[in-house]
Amino acid sequence: MFVPTDLHGHTLFSDGRATPEQYVDFRREIGMRAVAIADHDVLRAVPRGAAAAAAAQMVFIPAVEVTSFIHFGTPDAEQIHILAYYPEAFLRGPRLASTALHRRGLRVEARWRDFVLEWVSSLAEADRLALSAEGPLEALPPGEFPALQSFIDRVIRLRRPLFEAFREHHVRFWEADRELFGWEPEEAIDAIRADGALDIVAHPARYRDKERANQILLRASGLEVYTSRHKAEIAAGYRAFADEHRKHWTASSDDHQNARYIRPPSGTPLPTLERILRRPLPLDLVLSP
Protein backbone atom coordinates (compact mmCIF):
# COMPACT_ATOMS: atom_id res chain seq x y z
CA MET A 1 0.00 0.00 0.00
CA PHE A 2 1.30 3.44 -0.93
CA VAL A 3 0.39 6.77 0.67
CA PRO A 4 0.34 10.00 -1.40
CA THR A 5 3.33 11.93 -0.04
CA ASP A 6 5.84 14.64 -0.68
CA LEU A 7 8.63 14.08 1.82
CA HIS A 8 11.34 16.35 0.43
CA GLY A 9 11.00 20.00 -0.49
CA HIS A 10 12.26 23.38 0.59
CA THR A 11 10.99 26.68 1.95
CA LEU A 12 12.34 30.19 2.25
CA PHE A 13 14.35 29.00 5.25
CA SER A 14 16.85 27.40 2.84
CA ASP A 15 16.76 27.52 -0.95
CA GLY A 16 13.02 27.60 -1.58
CA ARG A 17 10.61 30.50 -1.92
CA ALA A 18 7.44 29.27 -0.18
CA THR A 19 6.52 29.92 3.41
CA PRO A 20 5.95 26.75 5.43
CA GLU A 21 2.21 27.46 5.30
CA GLN A 22 2.21 27.87 1.51
CA TYR A 23 4.26 24.69 1.14
CA VAL A 24 1.81 22.61 3.16
CA ASP A 25 -1.32 24.20 1.70
CA PHE A 26 -0.26 23.46 -1.88
CA ARG A 27 0.18 19.79 -1.04
CA ARG A 28 -3.19 19.69 0.68
CA GLU A 29 -4.78 21.07 -2.50
CA ILE A 30 -3.30 18.27 -4.64
CA GLY A 31 -4.35 15.51 -2.28
CA MET A 32 -1.21 14.65 -0.36
CA ARG A 33 -1.84 12.77 2.89
CA ALA A 34 1.65 13.03 4.42
CA VAL A 35 4.16 15.81 4.00
CA ALA A 36 7.62 16.81 5.17
CA ILE A 37 9.61 20.00 4.84
CA ALA A 38 13.29 19.08 4.44
CA ASP A 39 15.26 22.31 4.29
CA HIS A 40 19.01 22.16 3.95
CA ASP A 41 20.63 21.70 7.38
CA VAL A 42 18.02 23.69 9.35
CA LEU A 43 14.72 22.81 11.05
CA ARG A 44 13.42 26.39 11.27
CA ALA A 45 10.32 25.71 9.12
CA VAL A 46 9.18 22.63 11.01
CA PRO A 47 7.00 24.17 13.77
CA ARG A 48 5.07 26.34 11.31
CA GLY A 49 4.74 23.50 8.81
CA ALA A 50 3.48 21.18 11.52
CA ALA A 51 0.84 23.69 12.62
CA ALA A 52 -0.35 24.14 9.03
CA ALA A 53 -0.53 20.37 8.49
CA ALA A 54 -2.46 19.85 11.73
CA ALA A 55 -5.04 22.42 10.61
CA ALA A 56 -5.34 20.56 7.29
CA GLN A 57 -5.56 17.14 9.01
CA MET A 58 -2.42 15.95 7.26
CA VAL A 59 0.40 13.84 8.64
CA PHE A 60 3.50 16.00 9.11
CA ILE A 61 6.99 14.54 9.46
CA PRO A 62 9.79 16.69 10.94
CA ALA A 63 12.74 16.47 8.56
CA VAL A 64 16.02 18.03 7.49
CA GLU A 65 18.33 17.49 4.52
CA VAL A 66 21.81 17.08 5.96
CA THR A 67 24.83 18.17 3.91
CA SER A 68 27.88 15.91 3.97
CA PHE A 69 30.83 15.53 1.60
CA ILE A 70 32.96 12.93 -0.05
CA HIS A 71 36.51 13.92 -1.06
CA PHE A 72 36.17 17.15 0.96
CA GLY A 73 38.87 19.71 0.21
CA THR A 74 39.93 18.08 -3.06
CA PRO A 75 39.07 18.81 -6.71
CA ASP A 76 36.74 15.78 -6.54
CA ALA A 77 34.76 17.16 -3.60
CA GLU A 78 31.07 16.33 -3.86
CA GLN A 79 28.10 17.02 -1.62
CA ILE A 80 26.07 14.01 -0.48
CA HIS A 81 22.68 14.80 1.04
CA ILE A 82 21.11 12.55 3.68
CA LEU A 83 17.50 13.15 4.68
CA ALA A 84 16.68 12.78 8.38
CA TYR A 85 13.07 11.95 9.25
CA TYR A 86 11.98 12.25 12.88
CA PRO A 87 8.94 10.62 14.49
CA GLU A 88 6.11 13.13 14.90
CA ALA A 89 6.40 12.71 18.68
CA PHE A 90 9.46 14.96 18.40
CA LEU A 91 7.08 17.85 17.68
CA ARG A 92 5.81 17.78 21.26
CA GLY A 93 7.71 19.70 23.91
CA PRO A 94 11.45 20.47 23.60
CA ARG A 95 12.48 17.15 22.09
CA LEU A 96 13.24 18.34 18.56
CA ALA A 97 15.07 21.43 19.81
CA SER A 98 17.31 19.20 21.93
CA THR A 99 18.54 17.10 19.01
CA ALA A 100 22.09 17.37 17.73
CA LEU A 101 20.93 18.25 14.21
CA HIS A 102 18.72 21.07 15.50
CA ARG A 103 21.68 22.52 17.40
CA ARG A 104 23.84 22.12 14.31
CA GLY A 105 21.17 23.97 12.31
CA LEU A 106 21.43 26.95 14.65
CA ARG A 107 25.17 27.06 14.02
CA VAL A 108 24.56 26.85 10.26
CA GLU A 109 22.18 29.83 10.44
CA ALA A 110 24.70 31.88 12.43
CA ARG A 111 27.56 31.00 10.08
CA TRP A 112 25.43 31.85 7.02
CA ARG A 113 24.63 35.29 8.45
CA ASP A 114 28.32 35.96 9.12
CA PHE A 115 29.27 34.66 5.66
CA VAL A 116 26.83 36.94 3.85
CA LEU A 117 27.57 40.02 5.96
CA GLU A 118 31.29 39.55 5.34
CA TRP A 119 30.63 39.51 1.60
CA VAL A 120 28.39 42.58 1.81
CA SER A 121 31.04 44.45 3.83
CA SER A 122 33.53 43.89 0.98
CA LEU A 123 31.31 45.73 -1.52
CA ALA A 124 31.45 49.34 -2.58
CA GLU A 125 29.41 51.69 -0.42
CA ALA A 126 26.75 52.22 -3.10
CA ASP A 127 26.22 48.46 -3.36
CA ARG A 128 25.99 48.06 0.40
CA LEU A 129 23.42 50.82 0.64
CA ALA A 130 21.38 49.33 -2.19
CA LEU A 131 21.22 45.94 -0.50
CA SER A 132 20.04 47.62 2.72
CA ALA A 133 17.20 49.50 1.02
CA GLU A 134 14.63 47.16 2.57
CA GLY A 135 16.20 47.36 6.01
CA PRO A 136 19.68 46.85 7.47
CA LEU A 137 20.80 43.26 7.13
CA GLU A 138 23.05 43.46 10.17
CA ALA A 139 20.02 44.15 12.38
CA LEU A 140 18.53 40.72 11.60
CA PRO A 141 19.28 37.79 13.95
CA PRO A 142 20.29 34.46 12.39
CA GLY A 143 16.78 32.98 12.46
CA GLU A 144 15.35 35.95 10.55
CA PHE A 145 18.27 36.52 8.22
CA PRO A 146 17.54 35.84 4.52
CA ALA A 147 18.49 32.27 3.62
CA LEU A 148 20.08 31.37 0.29
CA GLN A 149 17.17 31.82 -2.14
CA SER A 150 15.76 34.80 -0.28
CA PHE A 151 19.11 36.56 -0.34
CA ILE A 152 19.64 35.79 -4.03
CA ASP A 153 16.20 37.23 -4.76
CA ARG A 154 17.10 40.31 -2.72
CA VAL A 155 20.30 40.80 -4.72
CA ILE A 156 18.43 40.46 -8.02
CA ARG A 157 15.69 42.80 -6.87
CA LEU A 158 17.92 45.53 -5.42
CA ARG A 159 21.30 45.22 -7.18
CA ARG A 160 21.11 42.78 -10.07
CA PRO A 161 24.69 43.39 -11.35
CA LEU A 162 25.94 41.72 -8.15
CA PHE A 163 24.13 38.46 -8.85
CA GLU A 164 26.94 36.67 -10.70
CA ALA A 165 29.50 37.70 -8.10
CA PHE A 166 27.41 36.34 -5.27
CA ARG A 167 26.53 33.17 -7.14
CA GLU A 168 30.23 32.43 -7.57
CA HIS A 169 30.97 33.35 -3.95
CA HIS A 170 28.22 31.48 -2.14
CA VAL A 171 29.51 27.96 -2.88
CA ARG A 172 32.43 28.66 -0.54
CA PHE A 173 30.03 28.55 2.37
CA TRP A 174 29.91 24.75 2.11
CA GLU A 175 33.26 24.03 0.53
CA ALA A 176 35.38 25.92 3.08
CA ASP A 177 33.69 24.98 6.37
CA ARG A 178 35.09 21.60 7.37
CA GLU A 179 33.60 21.73 10.88
CA LEU A 180 29.98 21.96 9.72
CA PHE A 181 30.05 20.27 6.34
CA GLY A 182 33.26 18.27 6.05
CA TRP A 183 31.93 15.08 7.59
CA GLU A 184 31.54 11.90 5.58
CA PRO A 185 28.02 10.64 4.72
CA GLU A 186 28.46 7.70 7.08
CA GLU A 187 29.14 10.15 9.93
CA ALA A 188 25.97 12.06 9.04
CA ILE A 189 24.03 8.77 8.98
CA ASP A 190 25.33 7.89 12.44
CA ALA A 191 24.36 11.33 13.76
CA ILE A 192 20.85 10.99 12.30
CA ARG A 193 20.38 7.61 13.94
CA ALA A 194 21.75 8.88 17.25
CA ASP A 195 19.12 11.63 17.10
CA GLY A 196 16.37 9.02 16.78
CA ALA A 197 15.59 9.72 13.10
CA LEU A 198 15.51 7.57 9.95
CA ASP A 199 18.26 8.18 7.37
CA ILE A 200 17.34 8.27 3.67
CA VAL A 201 19.82 9.08 0.88
CA ALA A 202 18.44 11.95 -1.19
CA HIS A 203 18.35 11.85 -5.04
CA PRO A 204 21.04 9.15 -5.38
CA ALA A 205 21.31 9.47 -9.16
CA ARG A 206 22.81 12.92 -8.74
CA TYR A 207 26.17 11.76 -7.39
CA ARG A 208 29.14 11.50 -9.72
CA ASP A 209 31.22 8.98 -7.79
CA LYS A 210 28.99 5.97 -8.39
CA GLU A 211 31.15 3.47 -6.51
CA ARG A 212 31.20 5.65 -3.40
CA ALA A 213 27.47 6.38 -3.75
CA ASN A 214 26.71 2.66 -3.84
CA GLN A 215 28.65 2.16 -0.60
CA ILE A 216 26.58 4.90 1.04
CA LEU A 217 23.32 3.40 -0.23
CA LEU A 218 24.24 0.03 1.25
CA ARG A 219 25.04 1.68 4.59
CA ALA A 220 21.87 3.80 4.73
CA SER A 221 18.47 2.75 5.99
CA GLY A 222 16.81 3.82 2.77
CA LEU A 223 16.82 5.95 -0.33
CA GLU A 224 14.71 8.42 -2.25
CA VAL A 225 13.35 6.52 -5.26
CA TYR A 226 10.91 9.00 -6.76
CA THR A 227 12.08 12.60 -7.11
CA SER A 228 12.04 15.24 -9.83
CA ARG A 229 15.74 14.46 -10.39
CA HIS A 230 15.02 10.85 -11.41
CA LYS A 231 13.67 9.83 -14.80
CA ALA A 232 11.29 6.86 -14.80
CA GLU A 233 13.92 4.29 -15.72
CA ILE A 234 16.30 5.62 -13.05
CA ALA A 235 13.57 5.47 -10.40
CA ALA A 236 12.72 1.91 -11.43
CA GLY A 237 16.34 0.90 -10.96
CA TYR A 238 16.51 2.40 -7.49
CA ARG A 239 13.21 0.81 -6.53
CA ALA A 240 14.61 -2.58 -7.55
CA PHE A 241 17.74 -1.82 -5.49
CA ALA A 242 15.58 -1.00 -2.46
CA ASP A 243 13.62 -4.22 -2.85
CA GLU A 244 16.74 -6.34 -3.31
CA HIS A 245 18.51 -4.89 -0.28
CA ARG A 246 15.39 -4.51 1.88
CA LYS A 247 15.71 -0.75 2.15
CA HIS A 248 13.03 1.76 3.00
CA TRP A 249 12.21 4.11 0.13
CA THR A 250 10.32 7.37 -0.34
CA ALA A 251 8.50 9.45 -2.93
CA SER A 252 9.14 13.20 -3.07
CA SER A 253 9.44 16.19 -5.36
CA ASP A 254 12.58 18.01 -4.12
CA ASP A 255 10.57 21.15 -4.84
CA HIS A 256 12.30 24.55 -4.63
CA GLN A 257 9.45 26.59 -6.21
CA ASN A 258 11.75 27.68 -9.04
CA ALA A 259 10.38 25.32 -11.69
CA ARG A 260 7.17 23.50 -12.56
CA TYR A 261 6.07 21.23 -9.74
CA ILE A 262 6.52 17.54 -10.60
CA ARG A 263 4.26 15.32 -8.54
CA PRO A 264 5.83 12.01 -7.50
CA PRO A 265 4.38 9.21 -9.70
CA SER A 266 4.00 6.95 -6.68
CA GLY A 267 3.30 7.29 -3.00
CA THR A 268 5.62 6.20 -0.22
CA PRO A 269 5.17 2.63 1.06
CA LEU A 270 3.05 2.46 4.19
CA PRO A 271 5.73 0.47 6.10
CA THR A 272 8.27 3.25 5.49
CA LEU A 273 5.90 5.90 6.83
CA GLU A 274 5.04 3.80 9.85
CA ARG A 275 8.74 3.20 10.51
CA ILE A 276 9.35 6.95 10.46
CA LEU A 277 6.33 7.78 12.59
CA ARG A 278 6.77 4.76 14.88
CA ARG A 279 3.05 4.20 14.90
CA PRO A 280 0.44 2.65 12.61
CA LEU A 281 -1.49 4.95 10.33
CA PRO A 282 -5.29 4.59 10.46
CA LEU A 283 -6.73 3.27 7.23
CA ASP A 284 -9.33 6.04 7.02
CA LEU A 285 -6.50 8.59 6.77
CA VAL A 286 -4.47 6.52 4.34
CA LEU A 287 -7.39 5.76 2.04
CA SER A 288 -9.23 9.09 2.23
CA PRO A 289 -9.17 11.17 -0.98
Structural account:
The protein is α/β, with parallel strands linked by helices and 289 residues long. The chain has 2 domains: 2-101 and 185-287, Metal-dependent hydrolases (TIM Barrel, Alpha-Beta Barrel); 105-175, no CATH class. It contains 13 helices and 9 strands. A 7-stranded mixed sheet has the order 2-3-4-5-6-7-8. A two-stranded antiparallel sheet has the order 1-9. It is globular.
Which key phrases capture this entry?
289 residues, alpha/beta, TIM Barrel
Overall shape: it is: globular
CATH topology of the largest domain: TIM Barrel
Low-confidence stretches: none
- Which strand order does the major sheet show? 2-3-4-5-6-7-8
Q: Hey, roughly how much beta strand do the residues contain? A: 5-15%
Regarding quaternary structure, what we see is single chain
Would you spell out the secondary-structure blueprint of this structure?
Blueprint (H helix, E strand, L loop, with lengths): L1 E2 L1 E2 L13 H10 L4 E4 L8 H10 L3 E12 L7 E8 L14 H22 L3 H7 L16 H12 L3 H8 L1 H4 L2 H4 L3 H10 L3 E4 L8 H10 L2 E5 L5 H13 L3 E4 L16 E2 H8 L5 H5 L2
Parallel strand pairs: 2-3, 3-4, 6-7, 7-8
Antiparallel strand pairs: 1-9, 4-5, 5-6
Helix pairs in contact: 1-2, 5-6
Task: Summarize the model shown.
This protein has helices at 20-29, 46-55, 100-121, 125-131, 148-159, 163-170, 172-175, 178-181, 185-194, 210-219, 232-244, 270-277, 283-287, and strands spanning 2-3, 5-6, 34-37, 59-70, 78-85, 198-201, 222-226, 248-251, 268-269. It has 289 residues and is of the alpha/beta class.
